[in-house]
TrEMBL record:
GO terms for molecular function: DNA binding. Coiled coil: none annotated. PANTHER family: ACREF/ENVCD OPERON REPRESSOR-RELATED, TETR-FAMILY TRANSCRIPTIONAL REGULATOR. InterPro entries: Homeodomain-like_sf, HTH-type_Tx_Regulator, HTH_TetR, TetR_C_Firmicutes. The lineage of its organism: Bacteria, Bacillati, Bacillota, Bacilli, Bacillales. This is TetR family transcriptional regulator. Residues 29-48 bind DNA.
Amino acid sequence: MDRRIKKNQTAIMDALIQLMAEKDFEKITIHEIAECANVNRGTIYSHYLDKYDLLDKCIETQLKQLIESCLPVDDKGTYSSKASLLRTFELMEKNALFFRTLLTNKGVPSFRNHLQEMMKEGIREQIDENNLSLDDLRKEILVQFLSSATVGVIEWWFTHTMPCSAQEITEQLWALLQLNQVLPFIKQSDLVTQISD
């Protein structure tokens, strides 16, 4: 992709998020986005159908980066580990304005749903990769519980202006998941060892 095109797209997306931090998405106009991004309206329309398409592309870009941050660094890592959870929180911390804005803007309630669906998909993959023998009902309840708990913690972290670091929130969430024995990919013996340490 042409460097200038990429620069314009980044400026446009950043402008949208900046404006959303100030007012509801529904009240934002393409003219305001263009002004804030220092581009003309035609440039926006050359990349996006309308502001809704722009918002969808923003969300898609950020969630794709989140998914990539969850992946193991090497072939030996499990899909979801404490290290990948930390990388995810660090990426969200780095892009705090985006996540805080989309989780708190009344005009974008769908972002939370996108985030939770992404979590559900990852959890299902993890359950399947670890060959857990769960019937469909138990699997779906576990997926719903883990995704709801994680997204709830993420939402709390941002709506309370990140009262702790990415490292601290990762430690707390990981400990809660272990304590409640909802990390099925951790062997019971490993759990006992970690708790007693």
